[in-house]
Amino acid sequence: MPSLLKSSALASILLLLATGLWGAWGFAVHRNINRAAVYALPEPMLGYVMPHADWLSEHAVDADKRKHSVVNEAPKHYIDLDALPGDSIPRTYAGAVALFTHDTVWEYGVLPWQIRWTYANLVEAFSEQDLQNSLRLMADLGHYVGDAHVPLHTTVNYNGQLTGQKGVHGLWETRLPELYEERYDLVSGGAVYVENVLDFAWETIDYSHEFVAAVLGEEKKISEAFGPNSYVNEERGRSIQKVRSRPFCEAYHVALGGMVEQQWRGSISAVSSLWYSAWIDAGQPELALE
Questions:
Q1: 8 A C-beta contact, residue 250 and residue 226
Q2: Would the pLDDT of 4 be above 80?
Q3: Of 51, 141, 219, 287, which residue is the least packed, with the fewest Cβ within 10 Å?
């Protein structure tokens, strides 16, 4: 890679990291979700997977890292429910393509189907006791399921860019978690078997989408109330960054009524349940993941 391209790519990466716009939840939360999902697994699967909790946590963000280098990776992380024409979206991929065309479906995202595809591949990897592929697919499935719990991954107005609210994505998924994580109860229930993964993915996404109006509406209302006091310059590492002020974040956090905490905890439960279900569907093999 030419040095200029390297520098440009690095600058883009640093900007994305700084603004929290790389992917749903931000890197730290994605890593927490995968790690916590391990400990929600029942025995004997817990015993098989626990030695790899660090790896699954570290690689929880691999899918985000691929978005800027792998063709068609980005649409796997979202679905713009409010951009697709018509009153309802077919639940199956084949049905959606038949109604909207392949190009339209991929333009507006394939997240529910990607969850199903990754799940099917994980079942196969478990069945074959393929260590490398099993762990890779577990990490990716955890990431996509986490994305499905972020309301702004279900709307074409994913960063408030259509309503003069640019930056709301990073505010919801990164700024609030970093400020309030210590207040959250993130202990989820144990993993449960999921009968129909595609239905589960759609139910998760539909539920997340119900929060879009509140995510955007409360941000706009509080931004108008705070005016220029919505932002402050804050030292981060060796740089000074413009971020939402702590009083603003407190007001927004309260207005959301526990939404971020709820969706984070739900992500942990869902990831653990789908890992467990894939193992069940694979015949409950002894996983020599070492």
A1: no
A2: no
A3: 51
Q: How far apart are CA 250 and CA 141, in angstroms?
A: 32
Place of tokens 């890593």: 31
* Cα radius of gyration rounded to whole Å, the chain: 19
Of 266, 122, 274, the residue nearest 204 (C-alpha):
266
Whether 14 has a pLDDT exceeding 50, the answer reads no
109: three-class secondary structure by DSSP: coil
Q: Can you tell me the mean pLDDT for 25-40?
A: 95
The string over 217-247, giving b where at least 16 C-beta atoms fall within 10 Å of a residue's C-beta and e elsewhere, is: ebbeebbeebeeebeeeeeeeeeeeebbbee
- Tell me the domains of the chain and their CATH numbers: 26-209+259-281 (1.10.575.10)
Burial class (CB in 10 A: 0-12, 13-18, 19+), 11: exposed
Measured CA to CA, the distance from residue 266 to residue 289 in angstroms comes to 26
Q: Pick the closest to residue 120 from 141, 149, 135, 106 (CA basis).
A: 141
- Three-class SS of residue 242? strand
pLDDT digits (tens, 9 = 90+) for 162-192: 999 999 999 999 999 999 999 999 998 899 9
User: For position 21, what pLDDT does the model report?
Assistant: 36
Question: pTM for this one?
Answer: 0.90
Two structure tokens written together for 284: 């409950």
